[in-house]
Specification:
The protein is α/β, with parallel strands linked by helices and 331 residues long. 44% of the residues lie in helices and 13% in strands. The structure holds phosphoric acid mono(formamide)ester (CP) and norvaline. The site of norvaline (NVA) has 9 residues, from helix 6.
């Protein structure tokens, strides 16, 4: 049966079948090839989209903007300071108004329920550009990058997520691996493994039993062996900066170092990271925290710049995969 995603929201990969995710990945590959060949797209001509950002962004915002412009569409950007949403106007009313103006709405913010409620009331597709609980567009880009760099079918790929195993990226990866029959290991401290949402675990375990995926968690480095992908993310996500001291305490043993990469015993292992990353002390936050005695680097500069690192290919793929999501749902 052919896949048709017109009119669908993109809130979490859990709402999509493996065939639908495959369709988006293949469409992203086509759109990437088209862009590389300098072929201009027209699939969003006459379409308008709005981007709502309650948290900051470089990649996601720019990916939506460039993707939409590339296909002939128009973009409006609203950050939390420049709309009435939530302050003078309810989410429901905002969604109903924006749904009259726009063909699609992107939302980045805190609660997953906010993006779900927007989708419930907008009457047009809503795309999740990151919440506290998920980051589905990132996983599409990550899987595309894996398919470009790892010479194995996804069903044989082992992804080890190192660090804050109870954050939005880790959850998004569990969903992605479960759906695509991949092998996920959350490598982090016992205290954080215990904090993983039990509902998320129940959901991914059920899907994994249908797709052949495996989902495991451990603080034991023996699980690094055979990894095809070492993945990392910052230790304190947006909005959690007050938790930096305790996170550094717990997560320093899980920093991605050359020694950790060697534990995979796979010379072809790739390193991926959603970015932004603390891999040196060239940022205001890393410098300030260092002065307070906290080394917040989740990966060393050596690994970040090594042959294993494909993080900038991955960042570019945000744009191609987000373009696929927009084109598939409103194009
Ligand atoms: N990876 C990612 O979502 O990056 P931004 O926060 O810059 O959008
Ligand atoms: N876990 C990170 C991901 C950033 C893309 C955050 O939410 O800040």
């Amino acid at each position: 049966m052919s896949v048709n995603l017109k009119g669908r929201s993109f809130l979490t990969l859990m709402d999509f079948t493996p065939e639908e995710i495959r369709y988006l990945l293949d469409l992203a590959k086509d759109l990437k090839a088209k862009k590389r060949a300098g072929i201009k797209g027209k699939s969003l001509e006459g379409k308008n989209i709005v981007l709502l950002f309650e948290k900051t962004s470089t990649r996601t915002r720019c990916a939506f903007e460039v993707a939409c412009h590339d296909e002939g569409g128009h973009v409006t950007f609203l950050d939390s300071g420049s709309s009435q949403m939530g302050k003078k106007e309810s989410l429901e009313d905002t969604a109903k108004v924006l749904g009259r103006f726009f063909d699609g709405i992107e939302y980045r913010g805190y609660d997953q329920k906010t993006v779900e409620d927007l989708a419930k009331h907008a009457g047009v597709p809503v795309w999740n550009g990151l919440t506290d609980a998920d980051h589905p567009t990132q996983i599409l880009a990550d899987i595309l990058t894996i398919e470009e760099h790892v010479a194995k079918p996804l069903s044989k790929v082992k992804v080890v997520f190192c660090g804050d195993v109870r954050n939005n990226m880790s959850y998004a990866w569990m969903y992605g691996c479960a759906k695509m029959g991949m092998h996920f290991v959350g490598y982090g401290p016992e205290e954080l493994i215990k904090e993983i949402d039990s509902e998320v675990l129940t959901k991914v375990t059920e899907i994994a039993s249908q797709t052949g995926a495996t989902i495991d968690f451990s603080n034991d480095k023996k699980w690094l062996k055979g990894a095809d992908v070492i993945y990392s993310d910052i230790w304190a996500s947006m909005g959690e900066e007050d938790q930096i001291p305790e996170r550094v305490d717990k997560l320093e043993p899980y920093r991605v170092t050359t020694e950790l990469i060697k534990e995979t015993e796979n010379d072809d292992v790739i390193f991926l990271h959603c970015l932004p990353s603390f891999h040196d002390f060239e940022t205001k936050m890393a410098k300030e925290q260092k002065e307070k005695g906290y080394d917040i680097r989740e990966v060393t500069d050596e690994v970040f710049r090594s042959k294993h690192s494909k993080v900038f290919d991955e960042a570019e793929n945000r744009m191609h995969t987000i373009k696929a999501v927009i084109v598939a749902t409103i194009g």
